[in-house]
Every structure is written in structure tokens, then in C-alpha cells.
Amino acid sequence: GAISSVVENFQNGFKPLTLFLPFSSLPLQLTEKRFPLGQLPSGVSFVPQLSFITQIDKKFLSNYSQQANLDINLSVNNDTQLTAEYTFVRGLKLISMRDINPIVRPLPLDLIKSFTTGRIDPSKGTVLDVESAFDSYYHALTLSIKRRLQNRVALLASYTYSKVIDNASDFSLVLAEVGNPLKPGNERGLSLQDIRNRLVFSGIFDIGYKTNPLLKDFQLSTIITLESGRPYNLLAGVDLDLSGDPNPADRPTNLGRNAGLLPGFANVDLRLTKNIKFQEKYTLQATLEVFNLFNQVNISEIDRTFPPNNQSQFSLPTQENGRFITPPERFRGAFTPRQFQLGLKFSF
Predict the structure, then answer these.
(1) Distance of CA 40 to the CA centre of its chain
(2) Which of 161, 219, 244, 334 could covalently link to 273 via disulfide, CB atoms 3.0 to 4.6 Å apart?
(3) What is the residue extent of each domain of the chain?
(4) What is the phi/psi pair of residue 186, to 5°?
(5) What is the rounded distance in angstroms from the CA atom of residue 289 to the CA atom of residue 294?
(6) What are phi and psi of 113, to 5 degrees?
(7) Per-residue pLDDT tens for 200-232?
(8) How many whole angstroms separate alpha carbon 113 and alpha carbon 56?
(9) pTM of the model as a whole
(10) What pairs with residue 70 in β-bridges?
(11) H-helix or E-strand containing 39?
(12) Measured at the alpha carbon of residue 173, what is the angle toward residues 170 and 175, in degrees to the nearest 5?
């Protein structure tokens, strides 16, 4: 079974102490081997106003979701089916965290004094509160068609138009990027998961020739994915309001959350399969898979920091339909390029 070992140092060497499950999953306390409880060694000074505390909110609750779904199916014939589907999902009590003790009385000419006297509670430093006070909304309309042709071709195409809104994207403070932690309601905006348009086509094609032993039992399958760009958050890169953000999460003046738009995503995957049978109970399956067939460059990372110049003006990218489009010089990373994969599977 699984075991865990704790090594205790003795004068004559190391002696292993072994605990078997379930006790290995419990907190272990050895006499006079504990961490210090709230006391610092003598001679070590501590400034509480410069501390960094993380706490769980007293009203913390488990998150949950509310879902609704309505779909209409129409069978045109035995080989063709049409579907229209509306989906609604609301996420409640989502988890994130914010600084509930930011600097509210900044002193631009004395940063140290701002940290020690300018917070809501001047006796403490940064207090990160883990809360379940956030929510999200997802609306989507999906249209799809499924069709089979003479038992040799199976096709499926679906288009989704959707919108996702939330006021917190992640549990991590780094990803939260809250402009004003005292007004989390102002963070309501497009989610990082918002993909406005998504088209997916998949197909399976029996391309073998039964009369030719070398060309029979071939199958070709593909998945084609086209997506519009996801939102991104524009950052100023500096602490504009001097609130003591650990990572300067302030946005350029008067910008909402996730006001930018990344480039779209396009991908084609292909798979070719050949089955070779030996007698009746042995089969060798050979596969060739190609991912990102056309070696499309799909942007995954960008430089999204737009600091102010000496005149406190922001040089922001061009807007289209109210969204800031990412200029090519800001591209910093891309998803996986074209890849090939060969496989063999023997069944008996």
C-alpha cells in the first residue's frame, strides 16, 4: 500500500518514522518538532504594514451552476438530421481573491509612508481575501447538421454563436488583475473564455477499394476548427492609482476589463487509417496523424502592456467594433506548429 515517511534526526543518525494510510494523510505533529507559532527569532525586526496575508472569507461558500437547455431536432430523412440548440449556464459563488486592504491615501512623494500609513487598516499590510462572491453568464446558440452518404461518408458540422460574461476569471491574484479591488462589480465584462463564433466540421470517409487488396480498408477522418479571437486585458504596467498592487493590474484610463481581442484560431487535423487482417482474429492497424495540417500560426501569447508616455498619454492599438485589435508587433507566442504522428496497433 501507499506509505509516507518522516525522517527524524537523532544524534546517532537518521531514523525513519513510517505511517500507513489513512494516517499518512493526517497532519503529523512530533514533540518539539513544530513550526514556531507567531513568534520571530530574537533580533529579527518585522514591519506588519509590509506584510502579505492571505485569508479565507468568513462567508465563503461552495460554487455551483444553474443550467437551462432547449433543443429542436429535425430528421429530414434517414441520413440527414438538423439540430438547433440554445444553452444557458450561470456560474455562482465563483472563487477568486482581491486585496481588501489597499492603499487609499497614497503619498506619491513618499512610497514607504504610503505603505505604512495609507491603507484602510494602517496596522496591516496587503490582505488577500479568498472569496466566493463572483459569477458568470454563458449564452449560446448552436446550429448543427449531421449527414451520412451511402455508408461510406459521415459528416458533422456545427456553428456556435455565444457570449460569456463574468467578473473574475481565475483564483490566482496574478490572473485576476482587478482594477479597483474595493469595487469588484466594476470588473464585469467579457470573460477570457468568450469565443463569439466557432465553426467545427468533422468527417469520416471510407476511401478503400474492396476489389484491390492493397487499397482496401483505408479510412480518412478530419476535424476542422475555426474560432473568432478571445478577449484579453489591456494593462498600463504601472500602479496608476498608487494602491499598492503587487502586480500593476491597472488598466489604461477609462478602459473596461478584457477590452482587447486576440487573433482568431484556425486548425485542420487529419488522420489516415489502414486495417490489415490476418486470418480472422488478428488485426494490425496503421495510422498516420497530422496535427495543424497547413502549419497555421495561431497566436497564444501577446504583449498586452501599454504604459503611458511622458505626457501620461496611452498609445493604444486600433479599435474595430469597439474592441482593441492586437497589432502583429505585439505577438509573443504561438500554439503548436504542424506535427506528424505514426502509430501501430495489433489486436488479437
Answers:
(1) 39
(2) 219
(3) 3-26+51-347
(4) -70, -10
(5) 13
(6) -70, -30
(7) 999 999 987 777 777 788 899 999 999 999 999
(8) 28
(9) 0.79
(10) 86
(11) none
(12) 50
pLDDT band at 30; cut points 50, 70, 90: very low
DSSP 119: B
Please spell the DSSP secondary structure of 81-94, one letter per residue: EEEEEEEEEEEEEE
Take residue 326 and report the three cell numbers written for it: 492586437
Cβ contacts of 253 within 8 Å, gap of 6 or more: 240, 314
- CA distances to 4, 8, 20 from 17, rounded to whole Å, are 9, 7, 10
Q: Any residues with CB less than 8 A from the CB of 233 and at least 6 apart, and which?
A: 177, 192, 251, 257, 258, 259, 260, 304
Residue matched to cell numbers 487509417? 273
Backbone angles phi, psi at 121, to 5 degrees: -110, 100
Query: Please, what sign has the CA dihedral across residues 261, 298, 301, 189?
Result: positive
- Cα angle, residue 113 at apex, residues 112 and 114 outer, rounded to 5°: 90
For 179, counting Cβ atoms within 10 Å of its Cβ (0-12 exposed, 13-18 middle, 19+ buried), the class is buried
Sorted by sequence, the CB contacts under 8 Å of residue 305 that are 6+ apart come out as 235, 236, 237
- Count of alpha carbons within 13 angstroms of residue 232, beta-carbon side: 24
Grid cell at residue 258: 478584457
Helices (H) and strands (E) in the chain, counts: 2, 19
Q: What is the DSSP string of 162-194?
A: EEEEES---SSHHHH--S-TT-GGGG-EE-TT-
Work out the angle at residue 173's Cα, subtended by the Cα atoms of residues 306 and 48, and round it to the nearest 5 degrees: 110
CB 142 within 8 A of CB 84: yes
| Contact status, residue 282 vs residue 347, Cβ threshold 8 Å | yes
Omega prior to 22 cis, within 30 of 0: yes
Other Cβ atoms closer than 10 A to 261: 23
For 42-68, what is each residue's pLDDT tens digit?
A: 776 778 888 888 899 999 999 999 999
